[in-house]
């Protein structure tokens, strides 16, 4: 079944939402249709496989996967699809997200995951990176990204004046 979602936002647990909502805020602002789902390589492996295997035929263009601790979800999703996968290391309690980062970033050659920074900034950048991928084929989206950059510049200049 084809949905109208261009981006799939998945997370290993609903406890990751506080981080992953930053990704969704960006996708909302860019008016990019997306779907969001809790799915885990560890706890729901069959569901995770199905999700990744059917992603392209369902119409997704990019998958953003957030997970914490032994964060195998982004890499395992990437193993089952050739869509671009962006991995978000969720900040863990025990090791501050270093475990999440290292679990996601160090993929073997052949199965890439575009890894962003730990936590909320990384989740924001994951949304922006997905938008930037899609903007290669969408001039209106490129304009929205330009406007977003201009708003950042304005904020910095205003803070400087203060
Ligand atoms: N890293 C993974 C995976 C996975 O990689 O498949 N599934 C759940 N988790 C992570 O476990 C942490 C704690 O989860 P709970 O809060 O549910 O105990 C979450 O950050 C989640 O991403």
Automatic annotation (TrEMBL):
UniProt-recorded Gene Ontology molecular function terms: 5-(carboxyamino)imidazole ribonucleotide mutase activity; lyase activity
Job of this protein: Catalyzes the conversion of N5-carboxyaminoimidazole ribonucleotide (N5-CAIR) to 4-carboxy-5-aminoimidazole ribonucleotide (CAIR).
Domain PurE positions: 5-156
Catalytic reactions on record: 5-carboxyamino-1-(5-phospho-D-ribosyl)imidazole + H(+) = 5-amino-1-(5-phospho-D-ribosyl)imidazole-4-carboxylate
Keywords associated with the record: Isomerase, Lyase, Purine biosynthesis
GO biological process: 'de novo' IMP biosynthetic process
Binding residues for substrate: 13, 16, 43
Keyword Isomerase applies: yes
Gene3D superfamilies according to UniProt: 3.40.50.1970
Tagged with keyword Lyase: yes
InterPro entries in alphabetical order: PurE_ClassI, PurE_dom, PurE_prokaryotes
Gene name as annotated: purE
Pathway(s) served: Purine metabolism; IMP biosynthesis via de novo pathway; 5-amino-1-(5-phospho-D-ribosyl)imidazole-4-carboxylate from 5-amino-1-(5-phospho-D-ribosyl)imidazole (N5-CAIR route): step 2/2
Annotated protein name in UniProt: N5-carboxyaminoimidazole ribonucleotide mutase
Entry's family note: Belongs to the AIR carboxylase family. Class I subfamily.
Matching HAMAP family: PurE_classI (MF_01929)
Enzyme Commission code(s) on record: 5.4.99.18
């Amino acid at each position: 079944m084809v949905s109208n979602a261009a981006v799939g936002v998945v997370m290993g647990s609903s406890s990751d939402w506080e981080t992953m909502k930053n990704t969704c805020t960006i996708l909302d602002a860019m008016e990019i249709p997306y779907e969001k789902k809790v799915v885990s390589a560890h706890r729901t492996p069959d569901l995770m496989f199905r999700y990744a295997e059917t992603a392209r035929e369902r119409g997704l263009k990019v998958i953003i996967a957030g997970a914490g601790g032994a964060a195998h979800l982004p890499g395992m999703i990437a193993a089952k699809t050739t869509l671009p996968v962006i991995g978000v290391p969720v900040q863990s309690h025990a090791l501050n997200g270093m475990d999440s980062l290292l679990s996601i970033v160090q993929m073997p050659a052949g199965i890439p995951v575009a890894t962003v920074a730990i936590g909320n900034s990384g989740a924001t950048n994951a949304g922006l990176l997905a938008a930037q991928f899609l903007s290669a084929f969408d001039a209106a989206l490129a304009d929205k990204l330009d406007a977003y950059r201009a708003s950042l510049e304005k904020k910095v200049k205003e803070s400087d004046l203060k």
